[in-house]
Amino acid sequence: MTLPDFPRFRLAHLPTPLERLERLRKHLNGPRLFMKRDDCTGLALGGNKTRKLEFLIGDALNRGATAVITEGGVQSNHVRQTAAAAAKAGLKCHLALDHRVPIDTSIYCESGNFLLDRLLGATAHLCGPNETRASVVTRVTSDLRSQGEVPYVIPTGGSNEIGALGYVLAARELLQQANEADISIDHVVAAASSGGTQAGLIAGMAIENSDVLVTGIDVEGDDGALTFEIENVTERCAERIGLAAGPWSSSPRIERGYAGEGYGIPTVSLIEAINLTATLEGILLDPVYTGKAMAGLIGMIRSGAFATDQTIVFIHSGGAPALFAYADRVLES
Ligand SMILES: *Cc1c(COP(=O)(O)O)cnc(C)c1O
Asked: What is d(CA 19, CA 15) in angstroms, rounded to the nearest whole number?
């Protein structure tokens, strides 16, 4: 089905590779495993937000914006990719950053994504003790207006119905790739946090009439907000692309139990997953999202969730720049 023509600003190297993980499959004695390399989207070390930003920046430019504002944690990959996208589009970029994760080593506070945000020319606004990211976004937006700028606010993780369009197209890209390589996919597994990636994939599979299942691994230890977010973004995205309600709209598949103490806090299974994937496949996962998502996939395989003749695609959504911020806690001792 053809999609409506949404404003799009090209940022990503597409299609991203679809790579077989044969040594990891053997080690786990599990189903056929592939990885969709969305860590290789190419924009300032890549990641899943680049696909979303093609449509968000497209919308911003279409509305005559001169500046973008977004929010996240100090080690946010979304924020880093937004800074790069804004640079390429010639837009000013302001960031509302908080420090929710209870790690305060100097590498965490200065290196990794936060170093890159500043290198990419963005202005960082760290939340004060009595501020929330939302209140900083409101304040910076009105300051920019009073300076004659036209600000465009991008939500956390770029997860709204516009950003999710990037993953509607990613679903199509993946199905085409699989088709060309004669691979029949049963299941896609990805990290889920702000939910736009999973929402876009669900809507994308539905509009392609595909019955590939999409499971998100909760990386935050979420209490239900994630389900609501994914349902909400999927519904609004479906409306935008003219997709009629269907079986896809029933509750999203979310696998819980791999988040440990919460967002950004490493777990034993995350460290195992990062080290296994690095040493068996030469691929770098990240310490916040894909490490926990791979721990989830490994846990599902070990508990017999898949038959060995099934084919699973893991979405590598990026994030490796944060490894440097976690340098003191990712090696297996
Ligand atoms: C943001 C992010 C995710 C989560 O994607 P959502 O669309 O927010 O659910 C997964 N992996 C990485 C590396 C990310 O930066």
From this structure: 12
Instruction: Compute CA distances 163 → 38, 143, 182, 225, 285, whole Å.
Output: 15, 25, 30, 19, 23
pLDDT (tens digit, 9 = 90+) per residue, 103-127?
Answer: 999 999 999 999 999 999 999 999 9
Counting ligand 1 atoms within 8 A of each CB, the residue from 75, 316, 317, 326 with the most, and so the one to mutate, is 317
Q: Helix 290-302 and helix 268-281: axis angle, to 10°?
A: 90
The closest-lying atom of ligand 1 relative to the alpha carbon of residue 196 is: 7
Cα 74–chain centre separation:
16
Q: What is the pTM of this model?
A: 0.98
d(CA 71, CA 157): 8
Which residues participate in catalysis according to the annotation?
76
In this structure, which amino acid lies at residue 140?
V
286-296 pLDDT tens trace: 999 999 999 99
